[in-house]
Amino acid sequence: MNPSVYHNIVMDLNLWPVYDFLARRGSNLIKERGDGLETVERAKLNAKIDLLRMNGADLSPELLSDTNIPTIKKIRVKGRVAVRLMLCRGPIHVHDEFTLLMGAVEKDRKLIPSNAEGIAEERRLVVIATQSRRTEHVRFR
Question: DSSP string covering 81-136, please?
Answer without folding.
Answer: S-EEEEEEE-SSSTTT-EEEEEEEEEETTEEESTTHHHHHHHHHHHHHH-GGGEEE
